[in-house]
UniProtKB/TrEMBL annotation:
First and last residue of the signal peptide: 1-18
GO cellular component: cytoplasm; endomembrane system; membrane
Record's subcellular location: Endomembrane system; Membrane
Protein name per UniProt: ZYBA0S06-06568g1_1
Species: Zygosaccharomyces bailii (strain CLIB 213 / ATCC 58445 / CBS 680 / BCRC 21525 / NBRC 1098 / NCYC 1416 / NRRL Y-2227)
Amino acid sequence: MLAIQAIVTFSFALLVSAHNVVLPPYGRRCFFEELNQGDELSVSFQFGDRDPQSSTQLTGDFLLYEPSGRDILKSFRDVSHGEATITAPSKGKYQYCFGNDGSNIQTKDVTFNVHGVVWIDLDDPHSDTLDTAVRKLSKLIKEVEDEQSYIVIRERTHRNTAESTNDRVKWWSIFQLGVVAVNSLFQIYYLKRFFEVTSMV
């Protein structure tokens, strides 16, 4: 019995897959995962903008449905990033969707990682085997990699914001310099005319 359980446990390795998709204006993208009862599904995500000139942090919705599609197990509304984890209450096809329902932006995308289907025995807190420790370490490393990919998106957005601000400051400074130059020329002209001597013939 223990041998069969060990074989089944090892056959459900931690599957991690990373994706990046563009969200349609006023639409959504949905994906499916087949889960058995007791399986764990973890999805982490970050909304971004494919426009390299954009300096706005975009937001969106995340919904995770049970197999019948009627009940929502997890939902995030108008967020820039997040993570949802569930333990499947029953066997079936679980659907999760990323929504852009309230926006007509055509360059909004979402980067997400599915930390896969994890057989429940692998994360037993009372387990003290080397295999369990290696799998937990692998899961933590993947979470760090995911966070680093999200930081890249945030850095791009913040860099675009800084460059946009620098451009505005530059043009405002040029405008101020022009105003000062025009004002100086006007004052010279006005004072010159003020001190001119007019003679009557």
